[in-house]
Design brief:
45% of the residues lie in helices and 15% in strands. With 151 residues, the protein is α/β, with parallel strands linked by helices. The chain has one domain: 3-Layer(aba) Sandwich (Ribose 5-phosphate Isomerase B, Chain: A), CATH 3.40.1400.
Amino acid sequence: MEQQLKLVIGCDFAAYDFKTEILENMKKNGYQIVDVGCDSSKEGLYAPVAKKVADAVAAGEYDYGILLCGTGQGMAMAANKVPGIRAVLCYDVLPAVLSKEHNHGNILCTGAWMMNVPDALRMIEAWLFAKYAGNNDEGVQLMKQYEREGR
């Protein structure tokens, strides 16, 4: 039996309703996923939620993270400030799968204003089950080196 993925999800106020629908569907489909906020469509900034998810993924508490805001841009930028994070911004299945296979992405970011829930769920699931192909180890190692060097 395959081990269940440990997943964490977060959003800002712009994606609260979007996240709620995605979370409900993922749980209905058997995913174990922890929601770290925000908890309202009226307030909740993207940067603190992105940091919370990124810190947890970088620490190995979760296998992967999902971050949602209006466009996904702010979440991706904020998450990528955390060493060890390779947050990817995607709006479709193919780039999502390639971001995992070729770039070893560990947090998927997307936007509530950019996608509908069924398409987002298809993209998330494809991304979750894509495997890093190891064909870009040099690029991934260089990213890690740049993090260590602080540039």
